[in-house]
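re the bet — no i am not wrong, look at it urself. input seq straight from the record:
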Amino acid sequence: MATFSISQDLSQLNKAELLERSGEFIFSTGLNDGASKLCRANMKYGLAQFHLIQQKYGLEPKATFISSPDETISRNNFRWNSGLGYGGRLNWGSGNEKLVFLNVKPNCCGILCGGLNELPDPYDLIKNIDKIKSTELYHKDILINWDYGISNHFINCFETKNLSDINLPPYTFFIHGSAPEFQDDKHGIGLYVDKSNTLKEFAIEENTIFGNQYILLDSDADKYLKFNEQALKFSNLKRELIANHLFNSNYQVICNQPHQFLKDYNNMYLGTNCTDINCNYINSNIFPTALRADMACYLFTGKKNFSEITLKNNNFIKRAENLDLLELLRNSHILAHGGGYSLPDINKVLKVLEYKDQRYFVCELIKDSNKLKIVRHMKELQFEYRGRDVILKILQLELGEIIARLNPVFSLKL
């Protein structure tokens, strides 16, 4: 394996060397299943693009992906084709460098965990939902987009099992949703560069040998970050507004945390909890981790992570020191927000075929290693959600401490 530095001239490296170098900037804590391996294989391409663009603008080419145990694929084709996976923190600077990569596509998704003294009747919830949807619900002048019937967005109710001295109500619920209202340019610049014409006009398209990235610089980066903050606040308020209507305000907000958002100019939490309680977007030190509907979910307190023992056990220290990333790892502030997608038939990635900026992943199958599945888009693949292995990995890595187990009573998928 070649030795790479953060200061070298990337123009002197060929494609294979650039990909090998970008792989050094992936610090994985995933489960190493097929989805986890696909994530890492694709992230090499995204990070290589980031590195080339960083160097072009006079910045250190050291964009880094630190994955959480729910490391997995992205089923968003635009994001995936941009060389980005899911389940971790993507960093490309100190937080103050006015360079924003737009292909990450922040959607301000999060989970509200509320406490209840009595278990609600599902039929009453269904009636309340029907009433809301038939009358239309607004926040100021924004029509609420009811996105709790799409993707993995849901409303779940649980019986609470306290596992710490934090006194929680006997029942809890999760509301999982995002802010699709802000993806296009109806209410401002827009979050998604592939959905907002306004944002695309502001953006600079950077072409690399691995594909294209859209970026914003300087004052345009300022505008985007402010709009991102507006969308985040709306997403949090939206979940509480929905909860108020569903439960008639007879609930206690335990936490309302985002897990897919742009923290600053240079940090994207891409499907993972951010446990940095000094961040203005984080409202408490309690974080939800949601698994499948038939499994218990959990509430954690977070940590800075990673500890020296964890760094040593995962063979991160030497590589992080060489790349001047040790402090970033010690202050990763990540915690899995869910189980993440698993791909039940894929064992590992054998190689990647490239054709006209398109990547085809040649995968070995679990049940028959002599048979291959060659895939480009992840959206159409058969998938499942992972289970308790993610929780065990969180505990093994000391990313957080469990304060409650939430035993499922019912899940309402609309």
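see?? The mean pLDDT is 94. told u. also The longest strand covers residues 252-264. so pay up
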